[in-house]
Amino acid sequence: MNKKSIIFSTFIVISLILVGCGANGNQSEGSSGDKVTLTLWHYWSGHLEEVLQSNVNDFNETQDGIEVELTFVPYNELTQQLLIGATSQDVPDIIIGGINEVQFYAKSGILENINEQVENSGLATGIYENIAAIHKIDDEFHGLPLHTNAVGLFYNKDLVDEPPVNWDELTNLATDLTEDGKYGFSASAHNSQHGTASWIPFLWSTGSGVEDLGSPEAISSLELWKNMYDESIMPKEILQKELEEVGVDFYNERVAMIIGGSWMIPALEEEAPDLNWSVAQIPKDQMHASVVGGESIAIGKGQSVDEAWQFIDFLMEPERQLEWLKATGNFPAISEVANDPYFQDDEVRKVFAEVISTSQGYGWGENHNEVNTAIYTAIQEALVGGSTSEEALKKASEIIQPLIEE
Amino acid sequence: MVKQSEFKRIIEKSKDYTFLMPASLFLLLFLVYPIFFNLNLSFRDVNVGNLIQGERELVGLSNYVTVLKDPLFVKALANSIVFTVGTIIFSTCIGFMLALYFNKPFPGNKWMRSILLIAWMTPIIIIGTVFRWMLSGENGIINEILMNIGILSQPNYWLTDTNTALFSVIITNIWISIPFSMVIILSGLQALPGNIYEAAKIDGANRFQQFFYITLPLMKPTLLVLLMLGVIFTFKVFDLIYIMTAGGPADATQVIPFLAYQLSFGMYRFGEGAALSNISFIIIGLFALVYLYFIRREEVM
């Protein structure tokens, strides 16, 4: 009996060791072949993944030297996985991630500096200043925008004849449209990026910014939301709703106007084909403002830079870009592409194409997550936490100020 | 000659120890190493700025000081305590009542007992989502019922209102914990000797006297185990909070484990996150010590 167990456990230990060696052996074999295999991390599923895969297939067929392989990483885990990988110098060759995360990734040392390649290729010319800035650290490119999107005011045309242009019009119209179980206006106040991205256009519209949250202008922008929330013109449960869930209330005609993202359009068309809707710029205080989102493509630090660049160059080709944008329902970051009739002759796409050319991203480098947390907490504190807008923003400002000054 | 037998003995002994190998290797790798790694991390300044490149400077206790000084820590600790105490008291009491009920033989007993276990077997992500729907202020069934029987005159936004959010999450957690309490208590009850009750009956003790003077004292060891496990399970709650409120609204349901997660994986302040999880480890450790003290006293008695 004794002997048997010893033999058995020895067997297990030995087989474990062998398995370990086996795996290692395989890996080194793979990379020693004459074909370079590039790993690409992305967080898309469904249709977007198919579009990406078909582009990758095209690329793999055009040449023999490089093979790009896709790896799906869930959206919420991408940053964690990249950081974990980077601690052991093991990041993917190519990364497709959120546009507002580029600063954070680059400053954390995950991304390769690709300024030389970008400048030589001429891809940088024509990218909107505001979007190019998001991809630069010390004026050097660390990634390129693959496509962009933005938030805007979605409105139900059956209820809203003329979309509101300024805050007073928004409040008045929303008040009129609010009745028994229906709301005039809705936006995400979720304790995540969703809440921050939905409110920050209002902050920017006053001419203020996150570096100046204590200012009367900043306070007035939160006050606008708080008043509508207190009057139940905005639904009470927006604190628990992400942008997509706010969108669901819009499909179901429970709200007349929402702050929504351009990426919601395909879902909107599919889920509510009969809904009569359109898009306008977010109502303004001083000027129209919006938040730019989207995805960027970048190269992992210390990986096969030259080969990875070939793929990016292939993907960013203007004609392929336009096909890509059509297939994914996203928007260009290059004015030349934005002037294509595809964007200019469509009522909705025209609005977003214009919004994107004038709005900013909201990446705050390595402090991205602290700033984001401080802002959505302030929104929630003002709406339900018993603080006034001033108190809530002052608290956020006390957290953000030292971070920015560092 | 003597030496040889000594040698043989050691060989014999060491053969026995080889049986410990797999278990101790496993513990070393997956328990001891992470604990010490975390301890080390908590004394260093580790954030996104220096995670990948640069020195992870030793900063002594400064992470602990930062965490403890954060007003959010006090709030999270208070919430954690309310959450744990509230859950334990109610789930144990209700679990006890159910256990007493199912301890009596009646038709369909086993069948119903198994159904009750469903609550415990269902993944938290499903329970959390279902309760979110039920507690919804717009069209949740709980508001509907309360308004129909006249307790509420207008809908209450359970998870959006800072006054009721924590309470609502506690109710959900009580619902999850009841079956576990019931099973443990029931197994304790079934092990109680029947002849004591017969003797008590002959002496004229009524049901309440039987419960308070016989059942409860005899159940003390079982209850202690249950409380101990319950406190540990409940104090380290993460998934339910993550699914139902993510610590909101306005930090009304922020608890220690979730705050530690946010520090580490939301803000990537790994040093502070590690410090906070160590603090939470110490708090749970204190509970364990209290438990050991009681057990020891039980045994002496």
TrEMBL record, chain A:
It comes from Oceanobacillus profundus. Belongs to the bacterial solute-binding protein 1 family. The keyword Signal applies. One of its GO terms (molecular function) is maltose binding. Pfam families: SBP_bac_8. This is ABC transporter substrate-binding protein. The keyword Signal applies. It comes from the Bacteria. Keywords: Signal, Transport. InterPro entries: SBP. GO terms for cellular component: ATP-binding cassette (ABC) transporter complex, substrate-binding subunit-containing. SUPFAM superfamilies: Periplasmic binding protein-like II.
From TrEMBL, chain B:
This is Sugar ABC transporter permease. Belongs to the binding-protein-dependent transport system permease family. It holds the Pfam family BPD_transp_1. The lineage of its organism: Bacteria, Bacillati, Bacillota, Bacilli, Bacillales. It is a multi-pass membrane protein. Keywords: Cell membrane, Membrane, Transmembrane, Transmembrane helix, Transport. It is found in: Cell membrane. Residues 77-291 form the ABC transmembrane type-1 domain. It comes from Oceanobacillus profundus. One of its GO terms (cellular component) is plasma membrane. The chain crosses the membrane at residues 17-36, 81-102, 114-135, 165-189, 210-235, 273-295. It comes from the Bacteria. GO terms for biological process: transmembrane transport. InterPro entries: MetI-like, MetI-like_sf. PANTHER family: BLR7065 PROTEIN (PTHR43005), SPERMIDINE_PUTRESCINE TRANSPORT SYSTEM PERMEASE PROTEIN (PTHR43005:SF1).
